[in-house]
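# nightly structure sweep
# worker-07 picked up a monomer target from the shared queue
# config: single-sequence mode, recycle default, output format = structure tokens
# input follows
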Amino acid sequence: MESAETLTPGPLRLGSRVRCRFKSLGEVEYEFAEYDRPRRFVWYSAIPRWENWHAFDFAEVPGGTQITQSSSFRLHGLWNLAAPIIRHLVQQRLSVMSTAVEGYLDASA
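# output follows
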């Protein structure tokens, strides 16, 4: 992610919208489809190729907080043929993101 901009005024809440810019996808707008602070939030995005739900779950554990990510998507048209490849790429991306968040939090501590 290169940048993020909150589009909805006020604190984050159900329905809040955020615009993110990615090297690979360009601009994508997300909506908070679920928001249960401090336990869970789900971002929903739709681009012409697919719809995506990206969930973040937070649980207290001894010594800190465990963050679990999951993602589901619905492909459109011929993109359905690429579902196995996209599923694999999404899993790889979640792993990379988890490592990056862990590194950021360790450096901030």
